[in-house]
Design goal:
2 helices; alpha+beta
Length: 105
């Protein structure tokens, strides 16, 4: 007995097409993200000169509401420590170097 192969059409596009952000929602999300980064950047710029001498190319994870930061050689381990102390908080990670960028641009 032979079975026919079903001709299944491939679905292309979003997984949940009914969940679409409007341009206003997307712009608001980007603005909130940029404002959060700027708050963290202020703390990073304040501590960067002293940390660059002792922890060059390490990672700093910042919790901006308290102003506390966590320095670690591994970016994921530093974020994990920060999440243990501040569960559910938004964090931002920088690399302690001239640019503060963790990856490649």
């Amino acid at each position: 007995m032979t079975t026919d192969k079903s001709t299944r059409t491939a679905r292309r596009g979003r997984i949940f097409p009914e969940i679409q952000w409007t341009e206003e929602q997307l712009a608001q999300w980007k603005a909130e993200r940029e404002e959060f980064r700027k708050r963290c950047q202020v703390i990073f710029d304040r501590v960067k000169p002293s940390l660059m001498q002792t922890h060059y190319n390490w990672y700093i994870t910042i919790e901006p509401l308290s102003g506390e930061y966590f320095v670690n050689k591994d970016d994921m381990h530093g974020a994990q420590i920060a999440h243990e102390k501040y569960p559910g908080a938004k964090l931002y990670t920088f690399r302690i170097n001239e640019t503060g960028v963790c990856g490649t641009i």
